[in-house]
Amino acid sequence: MDEVFELADVVADSELEGLFVWLLRLVGLLAILGGLALWLLTDVSLLVPLALLVGGIALLVVPGLLLEFAELFG
């Protein structure tokens, strides 16, 4: 877990934190859309679309929080 905070601190110091956060949010949004498409348009079990939806929501929320914690405690 220390490595994750160290990586977040390096990104926060590099002045590219906004770009990094929005890039991960875009990937999260694509994962959510892919999960919804798999769920609604194919005969795949619910496990794969649900994993994509949960992972996409995590990618939308976690990067911003991680950088805030790195700035707060770093």
Name some characteristics of this structure.
74 residues; mainly alpha; 86% helix
Protein model, in words:
The protein is an all-alpha fold and 74 residues long. It has one domain. 86% of the residues lie in helices and 0% in strands. The chain is built from three helices and no strands. The mean pLDDT is 84.
Which of globular, elongated, flat, extended, rod-shaped describes the shape? elongated
Oligomer: single chain
Helix content: over 70%
Please, how many domains?
1
Whole-angstrom Rg: 15 Å
Helix count, DSSP H or I runs of 4 or more residues = 3
Q: Which class do the helix and strand fractions yield? A: mainly alpha
How many individual β-strands?
A: 0
Mean of pLDDT: 84
- Biggest beta sheet attributes: none
Through-space gap between termini: 14 Å
Order of helices and strands: HHH
Taken as a percent bin, the fraction of beta residues is under 5%
Write a short abstract of this structure.
This protein is 86% helix and 0% strand. The protein has helices spanning 2-13, 17-41, 47-73.
Outline the fold blueprint.
Layout: H1 2-13, H2 17-41, H3 47-73
